[in-house]
Amino acid sequence: MPTRRTARGAARTLLPRDHDVLVCGASFAGLAVARELAGSGARVLVVDRYEIGERQTSACGIPTEWLRAMGLMAAHRQTFGRLVIHTPYVAARLELPWTFSTFDYPELCSRLWEQSDAAFETATVRGRTGRVVHTDRGDLSAPLIVDALGWRRVLGCGYQPPDAPLSRGLEVHPWGAGAELEIWIDRRYVPAGYGWSFPARDEVRVGVGSFDPRFHVKDTTVLLAEDLDRAAVRYQGNWIPHRLRDATEDGVFFVGDSAGHCLPLTAEGIRTAFYFGIACGRELRAVVEGRRTAAEALVRYHDFSAAHGWKFRSMLYAQRLIPRVPPRLLSRALVAMQWRRFVDWSFGHYLRIAPPEFAAGGPPRIPLRPAARAAA
Ligand SMILES: Cc1cc2nc3c(=O)[nH]c(=O)nc-3n(C[C@H](O)[C@H](O)[C@H](O)COP(=O)(O)OP(=O)(O)OC[C@H]3O[C@@H](n4cnc5c(N)ncnc54)[C@H](O)[C@@H]3O)c2cc1C
Q1: What average pLDDT does range 133-150 have in this prediction?
Q2: Closest CA to 266 of 312, 303, 300
Q3: Is the pLDDT of residue 172 over 60?
Q4: Does 262 sit in the ligand 1 pocket, CB within 6 Å?
Q5: In this predicted model, what pLDDT tens digit does every residue of 249-305 receive, in sequence order?
Q6: Is the CB of 238 within 6 Å of ligand 1?
Q7: Burial 219-229 (b: 16+ CB within 10 A, else e)
Q8: pTM of the predicted structure, to 2 decimals
Q9: Which residue among 27, 45, 52, 124 is best mutated to probe the pocket of ligand 1, counting the most ligand atoms within 8 A of its Cβ?
């Protein structure tokens, strides 16, 4: 179990209230928003129920170029130029046109935080009434409010599993090394979804994700770990939204999983949390700098996110289709997919849904507070 560093009891005093931007959630999406506001002069408060980087929320795999573009290579752990897809009949080896990397979650969060000049407080967000956000440390309000709290969408209309478009993901983190980035499309592990093994230098993240929220993945996560001769230890899991939602509601900006920004089919939600977090941060910055009104920023950010709708719908369509393809036919298709030009074309399109070049521009990316690393 991770050690809890979050303040408790008497240490949980009332929060300071005087802010221009309130960012709720300090993981990928919330930290990307705060980073984009650095140097704008805005008084930004970020709140999370845990300290920054305290609770890992994913297997932490991302296209390497995104790590580089965000200035986060210090958190890098391992790089892969190939994806191995196992079915009961074949192991297809796809040579990727770009590389994928795993990273260390606390290190990445701490490095992201270094690039912002926001204030941070631990607080559990309980809900919202109009412009007032309720937390266990008192009520907060700000002219600009961001929900980066993950799939629960606490500041808007939430989802209730299992009757919601949510996938279920669980993984274990045994110590050890591995050379390949691997996934399994195999009904032994999950009827609709996939299993994975993501090595990260000295640990391997082995898990199972189910597109059907009613399918429990605990037993088959253990089964996959056993099949790989890995220990089923250090669990981490969560719900994963697989449908894009409105990125604004009732004057609030939603970013990352709270807006359904995680990609269907692959459940890749880190680079999209960065991508839409940057887009949201740029709009907020324009408001703070007097170049736009808050109402204009809401419309622009909403429309930017919605313009990606057809890409998310295409991925959702594939997510629904693939589990219906008979395994032998799917295996044959995967063998055909190893053709280099097809891999380049399909993975090129996939990366362009949220391309790393988007992170370029904006304020200078120098660490603004080196001391924050020790504290985070
Ligand atoms: C097992 C698993 C493995 C995954 N692997 C990958 C992967 O390898 N690559 C990838 O791209 N995606 C992966 N994903 C998806 C990815 O984790 C999410 O899409 C991503 O974390 C979304 O980022 P976010 O910042 O929107 O939300 P989150 O990362 O979920 O962060 C939400 C933050 O809000 C805080 N919070 C929540 N509720 C409250 C509250 N009430 N009050 C205060 N704070 C609160 C949390 O503490 C957290 O810090 C995986 C998901 C799972 C479940």
Answers
A1: 95
A2: 312
A3: yes
A4: yes
A5: 999 999 999 999 999 999 999 999 999 999 999 999 999 999 999 999 999 999 999
A6: yes
A7: ebbbbbbebbe
A8: 0.94
A9: 27
